[in-house]
Design a protein that fits this description.
There is one protein chain. By secondary structure, the chain is of the alpha+beta class. The chain has one domain (2-219). 32% of the residues lie in helices and 34% in strands. Strands 1, 2, 3, 4, 5, 6 and 7 form a seven-stranded mixed beta sheet that branches. Strand 1 and strand 2 form a beta hairpin. The longest helix has 16 residues, at 20-35. It is globular, with a radius of gyration of 17 Å.
Amino acid sequence: MRRLVFVLLFVPIFGLAATPTERLTGALSILKELSNIPDSGAFVELLRQSEGIAIYPSLIKVGLVIGGQYGEGLVFKRDTPTAKWYGPVFVKLTGLSLGAQIGIQNVGLVLVLMNEDAVKSFTSSNVTLGGNISVAAGPMGRSLSADTDYKLQAAIYSYSVSKGFFAGLSLQGSVVQVDEDANKQFYGSSVSALDLLKAEPKSKEVVDLVNYLNSLIYLQPAM
C-alpha cells in the first residue's frame, strides 16, 4: 500500500521533465537567488575552494506516510589552476524516506563539490550520497569560520533554497544517476559523462551560467 501511495503521488510529477536548456536557465536563476541571500557569503567562499558544482533547479519532495524526492539537474567540473569550467553533465537525483511526513515541497538545490572524488561520483551510474561520498548541510553566514577548514570535513556541501530562504534538506541515502537521455538530447549523441566533463562551454545558456559562477568567485571580494 505504501508503494502504491508513493507511485500515485510521483507519477504526475515525474512527467514534468525539463529540457536541458530549461535546466540551464533554471540553474542560473537558482544560483542568483542563492548568492543574493544575505547569509550566502560562506557559500561563495566554499565555491572558491571547490572543484565542481551540481545544481538542481527544481527538487520535488513529497511525503505521505513515506516520502520521496526527485530532481533533474546538471554538474560542472572546475579546473582551479586554469579557472575553467567543464561540462555540463545532466543528472538526476532520487531518494526515499520513512516516518511521519506529509505535503509537497519544491526547492532549488545547489551542491558544492569540494574534491575530485565528489565530482567523479556524479559520472557513475548510481551513487548514494552519504555512503562513500560524504554530504553535509552547507554552512550559512556572511563568511566561513576562520578556524574551520570545511574542505577537509565533507566532500559535498548542500544548499537548498525556497522563495529566498535557506531550507533544511536531508540528502543522506539519495541516489545520483547520469541522465543519459538529457545528455544525448543536448549534445546530439551518446557521450560518456567523464568525457562530457572535459567539454568546454559552448551554448549561450552554458556560457551565461559559467560567467555568473566566475563573477561570484573572482569579482566578489573575499569575505
